């Protein structure tokens, strides 16, 4: 038995009301909202967050890391390596990017499925102000660990692909906005391909009607039309509130479907982009292991509004007046390489003699003075309490004011760092925080990844029927 | 912490201090030349050639001793020192030790900083090579952490503390208004201070010291030689410096209501100088009021107020110019701004002026002992300098 062993999704907290676009520009927009990566997030950082949510399997030891996105933070440098480092994977684990097209996601999934790897799909979708892509796109990430044996929660029982070359959606490297051909041309080309891939995957497993269907496409109308053909089994609950997540759309929807699926049920995942690709999965009894409270609906419920001007600023569409402070400078490669476990994995050190926890890691213990008697320990997954904080209106940020917090970690250790995803006026001493992997800033073409604290917010009890109703109304 | 000290072995016999401010028309060379020449001129008949060696304190206005030797055309040992915001004091400390050691007879400590050329708001410290993981809050944000921590520990309300901090800024501006060398030379009303725009935490613009250019210099000789230069030398009673283990920001036990480094350096300097009751024995104190809550906490760390009582003493006027222990009678960093390399020497210049009866409208009655204090870094992770100077030799 070969298939998915564990999975997770990440949706940034921010939502842009599509109507706000039309209100400002007099064009574009629409109904509903789209998800928006924070000013300190990109496809790499969101990929880390999704992968961290996919670690609930019996063990988490992927044989490879396969990262897919249409918006890689770097070219010429493998983005998967930062994810690899943040997850603390062993050096022997291969890491690679599948980048540039929506269909890259399928490449990552196929590669991970082949060797028990981890596929991480993340995207930040942009469009010109007022465009359908701007309003209809969304940001997010999903991760799937593949494996075999009893740990498999969703077995791959059918798979099919069809490839066809035609011009529907394209973008040349360096551009941020895509172009598309006339909608009806793509519709006509894609529909038969989608049907073919789906039928072949279903036929391979002898399944007539899958219990759940998720459809993702770089062509919005194709996705809706194909989904409609499967009836209620294929409702896109994501698009109305988060948008089309590009290379992550199939994955995040699949996470949501697996969260709802019961043992024995089948899930058809169908991607229609530069061809068509279908995976048919059968959910096993092992699905009982899936955690609750961190699913797609839970994260969608934690929405925080972002206004259109802020959205444009975060995505580089509005070049705002900076504070009269020096621009950030890029970090240096050798110190970052020496400190890679700390920088990417938030690995501190605990004294073997007096158990004092140090973040960042130290050689000489601040408690007992012992030298080189430390054990590496990551606090990335440890929650903490805000000991004190300051709202800073002078420090450089794309989203001022910044909030600096001193965090006392459960089990020891204090670290002062930036707080993100929080309302500066709601920060309080005693508040609970968790760590999140972020892009601190970019300088001279270097992206500075590190960890920030963010408030722990209990997900409101997800009201499934209400959400489904809202989704249906939007459609 | 053990130190032997050099009580009464060394004296300052001449000083110079430029006006502090936005010197758009003057370079660091100009400022250093002006301070050194004023210092030389302060001693009747003194030739600069007599100076055996120099110590230059500057954080970022130049590297190496040539920052001083080139503009002044001197051909002597010049040691450039840097120790964050205590840089100027560090130049004095090392110069004084060189004289006390017998290595030189006559040395000069010089400090200068040209901050305004950067075009930035606030202080800019160029980072060392790094891995990009240090958070970089602004200085006001780091020092703003003192305020809520103080409130919480001593049960002071936010409003009460705001009044206390406002009074500290008001007092220092009031003193600075009487000082022709200060950057800001007008009194500021408490209403205006309290209503100033917030920069970080609870700190408004008027809770922050300014950014200025300036330079200052001191001529240092053995105490027994002092009267060959002046009738009114200023004797060094104690010098202490502590570079902290910087664990505050990463120590869950640190509560942001004290600078441990200041407590240690004050204790050490008092022991060297034979001071047991600083509040009563000192005639004046020049302390590092980079932000108003810093000055409040320093009143307790330097032993002027009991723990948790500093805010009441501030409100009672204890540290006013006409109070029990005048603090920052020259106007402090608040009125002078903070050209890093110059500040410590500027503080000594106020003691010098007061001891000589040259402090004009700010003149205190028969001052005998003064304290100067600098700290650099942030709460929980700083360097601290404390000196005690006096107008008389202890018998």
TrEMBL record, chain A:
<dbReference type="Pfam" id="PF12172">
    <property type="entry name" value="zf-ChsH2"/>
</dbReference>
<dbReference type="GO" id="GO:0004421">
    <property type="term" value="F:hydroxymethylglutaryl-CoA synthase activity"/>
</dbReference>
<feature type="domain" description="ChsH2 rubredoxin-like zinc ribbon">
    <location>
        <begin position="346"/>
        <end position="373"/>
    </location>
</feature>
<dbReference type="InterPro" id="IPR001917">
    <property type="entry name" value="Aminotrans_II_pyridoxalP_BS"/>
</dbReference>
<dbReference type="InterPro" id="IPR012340">
    <property type="entry name" value="NA-bd_OB-fold"/>
</dbReference>
<dbReference type="InterPro" id="IPR016039">
    <property type="entry name" value="Thiolase-like"/>
</dbReference>
<dbReference type="Pfam" id="PF01796">
    <property type="entry name" value="OB_ChsH2_C"/>
</dbReference>
<feature type="domain" description="ChsH2 C-terminal OB-fold">
    <location>
        <begin position="383"/>
        <end position="438"/>
    </location>
</feature>
<keyword id="KW-0012">Acyltransferase</keyword>
<dbReference type="InterPro" id="IPR052513">
    <property type="entry name" value="Thioester_dehydratase-like"/>
</dbReference>
<dbReference type="InterPro" id="IPR022002">
    <property type="entry name" value="ChsH2_Znr"/>
</dbReference>
<dbReference type="InterPro" id="IPR002878">
    <property type="entry name" value="ChsH2_C"/>
</dbReference>
<protein>
    <submittedName>
        <fullName>Hydroxymethylglutaryl-CoA synthase</fullName>
        <ecNumber>2.3.3.10</ecNumber>
    </submittedName>
</protein>
<keyword id="KW-0808">Transferase</keyword>
TrEMBL record, chain B:
<dbReference type="Pfam" id="PF22691">
    <property type="entry name" value="Thiolase_C_1"/>
</dbReference>
<dbReference type="Pfam" id="PF00108">
    <property type="entry name" value="Thiolase_N"/>
</dbReference>
<dbReference type="InterPro" id="IPR020616">
    <property type="entry name" value="Thiolase_N"/>
</dbReference>
<dbReference type="InterPro" id="IPR055140">
    <property type="entry name" value="Thiolase_C_2"/>
</dbReference>
<dbReference type="GO" id="GO:0016747">
    <property type="term" value="F:acyltransferase activity, transferring groups other than amino-acyl groups"/>
</dbReference>
<protein>
    <submittedName>
        <fullName>Thiolase</fullName>
    </submittedName>
</protein>
<feature type="domain" description="Thiolase N-terminal">
    <location>
        <begin position="10"/>
        <end position="223"/>
    </location>
</feature>
<dbReference type="InterPro" id="IPR002155">
    <property type="entry name" value="Thiolase"/>
</dbReference>
<feature type="domain" description="Thiolase C-terminal">
    <location>
        <begin position="255"/>
        <end position="378"/>
    </location>
</feature>
<dbReference type="InterPro" id="IPR016039">
    <property type="entry name" value="Thiolase-like"/>
</dbReference>
